[in-house]
Design goal:
Blueprint (H helix, E strand, L loop, with lengths): L1 E6 L6 H9 L7 E5 L7 H4 L4 E5 L15 H12 L3 E5 L10 H7 L1 E5 L4 E7 L12 E5 L3 E4 L5 E8 L2 E11 L2 E6 L5 H4 L2 H14 L3
Parallel strand pairs: 1-2, 1-3, 3-4, 4-11
Antiparallel strand pairs: 5-8, 6-7, 6-9, 9-10, 10-11
Amino acid sequence: MRILVICDDFAHPAALTRDGLDGLGDSDYAFEWNEDPSQWSAEWMNKFPLTIFSKANNTSGSDSNPWANETIGQSFVNYVTQGNSVLFLHSGTALYEETPSLCKLMGGIFIGHPPQCPVTVEVEEEHPLTAGSAPFTLKDEHYQMEMNDPKVDLFLHTSSEHGRQPAGWTRTEGKGRVCVLTPGHNLNIWHHPSYQAILRNSLNWCLKA
């Protein structure tokens, strides 16, 4: 199954997403990578049933200027409404306050994080997207989220000395699906067996498998 991956930003190099998804090992997923926004187009994206969005609103790892605007944001809304899916991973939720269409599509938006600290990922028991996983604690950026859709299906929370936050949810938009996972600043989180299970489940849900 061909999946488009949009990645690389000022604080999260493309290698993090590449190595993180490589941790899934041999699978039926065929990832195609976009690290240069100038090479992205809505027409190209529409060839894929799922886009992984792992990029804060920076042009690249060396250019912190924003790449997304409301026209681009609306392209993602249209993409999902027509029956495709987007999986937002960690930094993919960040710095899009000036792109309200993307904020609404996510169902919740990053508003900041304290310095890295031990963060516990808490799974909703018996939820299909947490099958094969268990709670775990690792050092991470504890993303603080502001939810804007009360109807999201929450299946993950994160907790630390800074409180408890929503960390994984799904929602639908038109005929399509949206999934958000906020943990993942460090590679050992992506490679943790419980998080790998959640990633696989989320990919399959987005692909309606």
